[in-house]
Amino acid sequence: MLPDLSISPFTLVLTVIRFVLVVAVGLHILLTKRNTASAIGWIGACVFMPILGTTLYLMFGINRVTRLAKKLVGDRSPRRLEIDQPSSWNRELEGQFAPLALMVGKLSSRALVGGNSIIPLHDGDGAYPHMLDAIEKASKSILLCSYIFRDDKVGGLFADKLVAAHKRGVQVRVLVDGIGSGYFLSPLYHRLRRAGVPCARFMHSLLPWRMPFINLRDHRKILVVDGRIGFLGGLNIADENMVSRKPKHPVSDTHFKVEGPVVRQLAEAAAWDWYFTTQERLHGDLYFQEHKSTGESLARIVTAGPDTDLEKIEYTMLQAITLARKNVRLMTPYFLPGQRLMSELGLAALRGVQVDLVIPHQSNHLPLDWACAANIAPLLNAGVRVWLANPPFNHSKLMVVDRAWSCVGSSNLDIRSLRLNFEINMEIYDTVLAEMLDDFITKHRNKRLTHYDLDNRNKIIQIRDAFARLFMPYL
């Protein structure tokens, strides 16, 4: 007797659904995914687990941030709400870094502008008084974006100044990250809202279908007052940054006070973040001012994020390393870059450029340190000098090439910052400032990391570090 080979209607319908899902999702992946490894992984998941794989892809595999950004931008060029950089300050560069200036201009759609004053400020002790003074003297507008804005003594002081400015009629807008400033409670956000200050949380939602956005963070730190004075860098707003007060877990950092035409680009970036989050447009002279020359620095803002600015800060760094002739100095709190940046640093060292990388002896995220230890050997092989900075933990993000070009801002040298986070950096063509930052980095070259240090780890530690490295994109 022949076996019954008939298929039930339910099984047939389920099979058809699975086939349609695999084909539809597979086509979408092929048309939208640039990374082949990612594409193969998603297609494999959908083939072997059609329903679960499709569900996961719909939740985590589609970059809806880019789609939203393009929808908001419409038919305008990225990052231009209603602002055109005054052409009188636009500059063209000659010499060694001319190709870099040309490339970054095309990449960022922003002009290189002259007439800027850029002052480095170290730790909260050096930066907060300048920031608070600017807020206290504000007469028109305040734009503040911060990844971490804690409701502690320092945060409370900033909050009081912001509320006071709001009450005297200043247009205040505060944007905090939906994760960094507290996913569930975010007390500072509620404190400002109760006082009537317009405050929003970036990419924050408790709705299950919006949960994928929690991996996308606004890591930018921006303050623009009256469209005239700007601040940016790595500094969050919290007690831990007041190093002189000896907090339990001190965090050193470097921030920058900026005056001049480049502040307009900084204000534009802050206004875009606010618009992206709230769909409120910020208009006119309240936020965007004409500027006079305040210094000699040539500068330009470079933004990056998983929207219309994907990987632009990394491309800027790669091109700068390519043009290096003598030395490249980098200082970063976390070092877990992708293969492109690793290869470029190694190639620079092999062609005779002195490459110095300064990282903390111990950061405030141990899994990142573990993964870094498992990932850094190829740079040592190429001749890159890796240095461990003594405590306190230094959160500065600095890059200097040939003591002439600098890149500063919020971006760490890890995959999260370079691909997933919304970041803001400033490239600066100023030899005096570059030499100052180069000396600052050099001062923190305390202990050189060697092959012996890596090989001397016991096997259990090596396995732990190698396992942590598997999670590089998410650390």
UniProtKB/TrEMBL annotation:
UniProt domain PLD phosphodiesterase: residue ranges: 214-241, 390-417
One Gene Ontology MF term: cardiolipin synthase activity
Broad EC category: transferase
Keywords: Cell membrane, Lipid biosynthesis, Lipid metabolism, Membrane, Phospholipid biosynthesis, Phospholipid metabolism, Repeat, Secreted, Transferase, Transmembrane, Transmembrane helix
Enzyme Commission code(s) on record: 2.7.8.-
Alphabetical list of Gene3D superfamilies matching this protein: Endonuclease Chain A
Primary subcellular site in the record, as a coarse category: membrane
A GO-annotated cellular component: extracellular region
Domain of life: Bacteria
UniProt-listed PANTHER family: CARDIOLIPIN SYNTHASE (PTHR21248), PHOSPHOLIPASE D (PTHR21248:SF22)
Listed name of the protein: Cardiolipin synthase
Source organism per UniProt: Acetobacter oryzoeni
Name of the gene encoding the protein in the UniProt record: cls
